[in-house]
Design a protein that fits this description.
Elements lengths: L1 E10 L7 E10 L2 E8 L11 E6 L2 H17 L3 E2 L17 H9 L5 H18 L3 H4 L2 H10 L4 H4 L7 H15 L13 H4 L2 H34 L4 H8 L3 H13 L5 H8 L4 H14 L4 H9 L8 H23 L1
Antiparallel strand pairs: 1-2, 1-5, 2-3, 3-4
């Protein structure tokens, strides 16, 4: 294996020599390998350690490598030459107060208060028929549980709670929070004195580890979807094997199309089962309204009243038709 990248990391635990390891990227006949090993006598010994990735995809290799580096750094190792996760050592930058507020909050577990706030969010999401994430993230609810604002002015100091969200949900949240005592004072500038550099560095590295874990999982899911498409699977088979909804699958296909992957054969197969009338309505709607916004297209094609067919299925078909329309437009332009 030819080593194309190699970097040493060190962990100091006191006097004497530090503990060392190395991370590497290697290539052998088009197969990429990334991993970590104790510092070897020669680069050829690198494969004896943990292997994070082995395969043909540079994209997946890079995500796996960055996730692995962040995992090693969480164990206290620091690179001799930095820049594997960021252009500059991110723990040496001057952090914003909002970053410090997030960091400090995550060092303070508040499970009971957080669960009460999540219960409120579930009820609110059901009432508004929208994703719970758009109401408040887990991180935002946890910060509320830690800092316990009692007034609208205090609520605005919590990262994520701007004027719109505070006005929409503030009264309900403050009613819950005022029933709880608190140990922290407002304003929150004191947080800067409570977060030391080591605490901040560990937290920032953990954020990178989580970020690259999500990226790695998303890339792996994309490659699995592409493999199933190449096998000639139908939409129903894809939904079953990937355990996703028609809407989610259609959105993923649109994203693949935007990234330049050829999903048109699958789209054509699925649309071939539709009636000529429905296909004609698609073409007329795109010609009249363009292809940017789905809702006016949907109303133009299916109307705004009650439908005997599931609107989710209709929206999914509309997304597929939009992929075909855009491909034809691109082919015509070229």
């Amino acid at each position: 294996m030819k080593i194309v990248f190699l970097n040493r990391l060190e962990r100091w635990s006191g006097a004497g020599e530090p503990e060392r390891c190395q991370v590497y990227i290697g290539e052998d006949q088009g197969v990429w390998t990334a991993g970590c090993s104790p510092e070897p006598a020669t680069p050829d010994d690198a494969v004896s350690g943990d292997i994070w990735y082995e395969g043909l995809s540079w994209e997946e290799l890079l995500a796996s490598f960055r996730h692995g580096v962040a995992t090693v750094m969480r164990r206290g190792f620091r690179p001799v030459i930095d820049g594997m996760l960021e252009d500059l050592p991110f723990w040496e930058r001057r952090p914003s107060l909002q970053t410090l507020i997030r960091c400090y909050a995550e060092s303070r577990p508040e499970p009971e208060a957080t669960e009460e706030l999540k219960a409120w969010r579930r009820a609110k999401a059901a009432e508004e028929k929208r994703s719970a994430y758009f109401i408040a993230t887990n991180r935002e609810l946890h910060m509320l549980a830690v800092y316990v604002p009692h007034t609208p002015e205090e609520l605005l100091q919590i990262p994520g709670f701007g004027k719109w969200k505070a006005e929409k949900y503030g009264n309900e949240l403050l009613e819950i929070l005022r029933k709880r005592g608190r140990e922290h004072r407002f304003p929150l500038e004191w947080v800067a004195e409570r977060v030391d550099p080591d605490m901040l560095a560990d937290w920032l590295i953990a954020q990178r580890e989580q970020k690259y874990s999500r990226i790695r999982e998303a890339i792996a899911a994309k490659h699995r979807l592409l493999a199933l498409i190449r096998e000639g699977k139908t939409l129903k088979e894809l939904e079953s094997q990937l355990q996703c909804s028609p809407r989610e699958l259609a959105e993923r296909l649109e994203k693949l199309d935007e990234e330049g992957y050829d999903v048109l054969p699958l789209v054509e197969r699925e649309l071939s089962s539709l009636s000529e009338e429905e296909l004609r309505r698609f073409e007329e709607a795109f010609a009249e309204l363009g292809d940017r916004y789905l809702k006016p297209l949907y109303e133009r094609i299916y109307g705004s009243g009650e439908s005997a067919e599931d609107p989710v299925i209709q929206y999914s078909r509309l997304r597929l038709a939009r992929i075909r329309f855009r491909r034809r437009q691109a082919a015509g332009a070229s």
